[in-house]
Specification:
The structure holds two protein chains of two kinds.
Chain A lengths: L27 H27 L4 H7 L1 H32 L9 H13 L2 H12 L3 H25 L3 H9 L4 H31 L12 H9 L3 H29 L5
Helix pairs in contact in A: 1-10, 2-9, 3-6, 3-8, 4-6, 5-6, 6-8, 7-8, 8-10, 9-10
Chain B lengths: L28 E8 L9 E8 L4 E5 L6 H8 L7 E6 L2 E2 L5 H6 L1 E5 L10 H11 L4 H14 L4 H4 L9 H13 L5 E5 L7 H18 L2 E6 L2 H7 L2 E6 L3 E6 L1 H6 L4 H7 L3 H6 L14 E3 L4 H11 L5 E3 L5 E3 L20 E3 L4 H9 L5 E5 L5 E6 H16 L1
Parallel strand pairs in B: 3-8, 3-9, 6-7, 7-8, 11-12, 14-15
Antiparallel strand pairs in B: 1-2, 1-4, 4-5, 9-10, 12-13, 15-16
Helix pairs in contact in B: 3-4, 3-6, 4-6
The chains are: A mainly alpha, B alpha/beta.
Chain lengths: 267, 397
């Protein structure tokens, strides 16, 4: 047979066989980071409980480490973290999108510099300054934490959107999608992994910094530390630090889960 | 709009059907004095391009990089707005409707497929039909149909993500996506640039066979002159600033390059390139003496000597060639079926393939067969060179 020109394409189809379906969504590191932290947190917390039930505590220590008190402080701390983080996303993502569009684009270095300064400023200073201006309380703490956590999400939103292959955007436009449709259905989904990495960073920043909220009556686990420091009660200091660390680990882990869940399939 | 690809598409309202059996589903594209001048650049990227792209044809835009071929292409679907000039599709000015509306009626196929990695094959293909508001059932049917058309099994590939496909398969899906809403015009930007040569050749063949069925107007940018020659009904060769160096059929471009630039661009061996354009059917076949298996050798020799032939083509009882022995190789009483294999070429083969066979034959020719391997004659070197000469003369006229 020399008739190559009319040989049906199907007979040679197999040459173009697909690379086996790869379902490698979780690599080793990701799996470890998903499994290990919750186990560590649970073990450490059990350790804390054992210590708490057996330690001889003074009046002030007992007052601060009462279970009802501890749970309410954890609740406050978590609430501070979540409210601030949600605000961070609500502000930083649209801002980041705006800063990658059309004429506003040229302002993006300035805004990023500003956000950089927001994060660079000492967090205690930021909280105290805002409190002088806005008064004490939960919401002032939330606002300062939001300012503090803005940068990673903003920066990652901009990086994520800028990092998308421009031919994909052009493909979307060329197929007849409006620019909004391209943004919502192509650009944002593709930028989600990078944005979510920023969100996780922001969560960790915020959960740590929320410890300072107690200085302006914002609540949170900082109260235990503050009492421990001001009355010099080392047991309180350590207990407070351990609880904050455990909560931070747990929230970081939640961030990872969120990142994984939000990641579009196929990437 | 037709969605049934198994039948020849009916001409749609928007088609520029020229009445040739109503099989053309493409539309004519007209460019008039189209200019694209980027601010801050001395010379225009595209300087006054006027061009008619006939309905139902494949027109290849070729030229060196930076010649403005891609810019010219993207002005047709308004990804780039011309500075001045008019572009009409099927007689309608493309500025008459919104960009997005225009683009949904123009297929767009990009290098490597440019599939959206977070969407399945199915969702990638269904994108434009969804934008056009087709109902789910129609979209599903269309996706299956298109996957069939580009030789991918719908059951296997619908739900896959692009990264689970090979480069060639991604490109196929890209073509399917471009065809999804059955647009009269399809723009292709270096469609097969990112795949290996073997896959590229197959994709090109598939595109040609799809085009035979659909008869769209296809405008395709490439930097590969061989691809242009193979795919194009016409080739537009552009020089810097999208100056037309030549716009003609591949035969004419190869046979009579308009300028030195074109000749340089085609490169050496344009006659060799002609060989992949011409088919054996275009060449005059010689009819040497034939013999049938079982005939008396003496009779055959007598006939051959009378005709001045030193070899005979041996056919079996159903008229299929089985051997091509020299007379001195015919021994015994009756003609036997030769033992060695005879390599035949089909009447539809390109001269390129024919020459390949001829070169390995001791006769300096090749036996040509038609449908069901029926013997038709012999193609020889002289006939091929004669044909190339006549093609060149034709092109010069």
């Amino acid at each position: 047979m020399t008739d190559l020109a009319t040989a049906p394409a199907s007979t040679v189809e197999q040459v173009d066989a697909p690379p086996g379906r790869k379902r490698r969504r979780l690599d080793r590191e990701t799996t470890l980071m998903l499994v290990v932290p919750p186990i560590l947190v649970v073990l450490a917390f059990i350790g804390y409980v054992v210590w708490r039930q057996n330690a001889t505590l003074t009046g002030a220590e007992l007052e601060q480490l009462k279970w009802s008190q501890v749970w309410s402080l954890i609740g406050q701390h978590a609430r501070l973290t979540f409210v601030s983080s949600v605000l961070v996303v609500l502000v930083a993502v649209p801002l980041g999108i705006a800063l990658t569009r059309g004429p506003i684009r040229k302002f993006s270095p300035f805004v990023v510099a500003f956000a950089n300064a927001g994060q660079g400023a000492p967090s205690v200073g930021l909280i105290v300054l805002l409190a002088i201006w806005l008064g004490y309380g939960f919401w002032t703490a939330v606002i300062s934490l939001t300012v503090y956590g803005l940068l990673p999400v903003l920066r990652n939103t901009i990086t994520g959107l800028d990092g998308i292959d421009p031919t994909l955007v052009e493909a979307g436009r060329g197929l007849g999608m409006s620019s909004t449709a391209v943004l919502l259905r192509v650009e944002l989904p593709l930028a989600v992994p990078v944005i979510m990495a920023g969100v996780r960073t922001a969560l960790v920043l915020v959960v740590g910094t929320a410890t300072l909220a107690t200085f302006i009556n914002g609540g949170g686990l900082g109260a235990i530390l503050q009492t421990g420091i001001s009355l010099f009660l080392p047991k309180l200091m350590v207990a407070g630090a351990v609880l904050v660390a455990l909560l931070a680990l747990l929230i970081e882990w939640l961030g990872r889960v969120l990142e994984l869940v939000a990641r579009p399939k196929g990437l | 709009m037709t969605t049934d690809l198994s039948k020849a598409p009916e001409p749609t309202d928007s088609s520029g059907s020229t009445g040739s059996g109503g099989s053309i589903s493409g539309a004519e594209i007209l460019l008039e004095d189209v200019v694209k001048q980027y601010p801050g650049q001395k010379s225009p990227a595209v300087g006054s391009l006027s061009l008619t792209i006939p309905a139902g044809e494949i027109v290849m835009f070729v030229g060196p990089s930076g010649c403005g071929k891609t810019t010219s292409l993207k002005m047709i679907n308004r990804l780039i707005e011309p500075t001045s000039g008019t572009i009409k599709i099927d007689g309608e000015d493309i500025r008459g409707k919104s960009e997005t509306e225009l683009r949904r009626k123009i297929g767009y196929v990009i290098q490597g497929g440019s599939l959206f990695p977070h969407m399945t094959v199915e969702k990638n293909i269904a994108l434009v039909p969804k934008l056009l508001g087709w109902d789910k059932k129609r979209i599903d049917e269309r996706v299956d149909e298109l996957l069939d058309l580009v030789s991918l099994d719908p059951g296997r590939y619908r739900k896959r993500y692009p990264r689970e496909l090979s480069g060639g398969q991604q490109q196929r899906v890209g073509v399917a996506r471009g065809l999804a809403a059955d647009p009269p015009v399809i723009l292709m930007d270096e469609p097969f640039g990112a795949v290996d040569p073997i896959t590229r050749q197959r994709l090109q063949d598939e595109l040609l066979s799809i085009q035979r069925e659909l008869r769209k107007t296809i405008v395709c940018v490439t930097h590969d002159i061989d691809e242009a020659i193979k795919l194009g009904d016409r080739i537009l060769i552009l020089q810097e600033g999208a100056q037309i160096a030549q716009y003609d059929t591949p035969e004419v471009v190869l046979g009579a390059p308009a300028t030195e630039f074109v000749a340089d661009f085609i490169g050496s061996g344009s006659s060799l390139k002609q060989l992949s354009l011409a088919r054996v059917s275009e060449v005059e076949l010689r009819k040497p003496t034939t013999a049938t298996v079982g005939e008396r050798v003496a009779d055959v020799k007598q006939r051959a000597e009378a005709a001045g032939d030193r070899s005979v083509v041996v056919l079996d009882e159903r008229g299929r060639p089985v051997g091509w022995p020299w007379l001195r190789q015919l021994k015994g009483d009756t003609v036997l079926e030769p033992t060695e294999d005879l390599v035949n070429i089909d009447l539809r083969s390109t001269l390129n393939d024919a020459l390949d066979t001829m070169l390995s034959s001791s006769h300096g020719g090749a036996v040509v067969t038609g449908d069901r391997d029926q013997y038709l004659g012999v193609v020889v070197f002289d006939a091929v060179t004669e044909h190339i000469r006549s093609l060149e003369e034709e092109a010069r006229d």
